[in-house]
Amino acid sequence: MNKPDIRRALPQRRYTFGEFTVVVLGDIETDDAVNYRYILAVVREGDAEPGIYLTCESVRGGQQQLRLVMRDGAEVIAADPQYADIEVFTAAGLDMLRQILNLGDEEAYRLM
User: Which domain holds residue 66?
Assistant: First the structure.
């Protein structure tokens, strides 16, 4: 998995979503060449490490791109400057997770 190499990050939001814990990280320092604005990390109950990451990466011209990182690879799945807003990024991320993880009617409950 091409997961982000996080040296330091501050949790901004935390949710339970079905059998998963979702943490949105900000103020990120990494050893990667990528400029991460936010990272949404998804941990299945009982696992020690996240199995899915959704990153918001700042690119040229103020654009923000969303990259989905899973065990079998990574792919840019969307781009929009509005993802620079943590609320927009988080809402989009939770909607994407609902589809990817087949969570149907599950609600995400904010813990932090």
Answer: 6-104
